[in-house]
Design the sequence.
C-alpha cells in the first residue's frame, strides 16, 4: 500500500480535498450543453467538450478525494449516481433533502472549477422532484 501511495503521489500529485489537481482546457464561451462526461470505471471519467477530449481524469484530479485518504468523496458518489440515472437524480424519499442539496451544491462547485464554466451544471426536474444535469453524462459499460 505504501509503495502504491507513493506511486500515485508521483503520478497524480498530492491529494488536496476540494482543490482540483487538474483543470480541463475548456474553450472560452463553452456552456454545459457542450459537455459530455463518460465514466470509464468507478474512479475515472473521460470528459469531452464539443467532441474533444483531453484524456481520462480520476476523482483525485477533479478535487473529489477525501482529505488524507485515497477515497472518493460523497460528491463523487453523487456524480456516479447521476451517471447511472443518465443525468437525472430524483430526491430519495429516505434521505435528508438538505444534505443531498448540499452535496449537489458542492458537486456543482467542483464541476464549475474543473471545467471553468460559471453557470450551474444542474437544473430542477419538473415539479422540483429532483434535479438533472445540463450536460450529457454516461455510466460505465
Sequence:
Amino acid at each position: 500500500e505504501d509503495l502504491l501511495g507513493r506511486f500515485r503521489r508521483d503520478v497524480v500529485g498530492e491529494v488536496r480535498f476540494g482543490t482540483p489537481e487538474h483543470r480541463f482546457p475548456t474553450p472560452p464561451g463553452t456552456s454545459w450543453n457542450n459537455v459530455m462526461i463518460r465514466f470509464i470505471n468507478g474512479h475515472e471519467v473521460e470528459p469531452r467538450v464539443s467532441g474533444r477530449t483531453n484524456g481520462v481524469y480520476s476523482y483525485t484530479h477533479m478535487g473529489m478525494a477525501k482529505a488524507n485518504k485515497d477515497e472518493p468523496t460523497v460528491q463523487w458518489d453523487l456524480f456516479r449516481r447521476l451517471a447511472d440515472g443518465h443525468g437525472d437524480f430524483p430526491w430519495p424519499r429516505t434521505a435528508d433533502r438538505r444534505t443531498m442539496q448540499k452535496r449537489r451544491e458542492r458537486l456543482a462547485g467542483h464541476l464549475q472549477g474543473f471545467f471553468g464554466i460559471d453557470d450551474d451544471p444542474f437544473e430542477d426536474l419538473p415539479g422540483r422532484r429532483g434535479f438533472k444535469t445540463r450536460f450529457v453524462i454516461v455510466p460505465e459499460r
Residues 15-19 have pLDDT under 50 and may be disordered. The helical segments are 2-12, 74-84, 97-115.
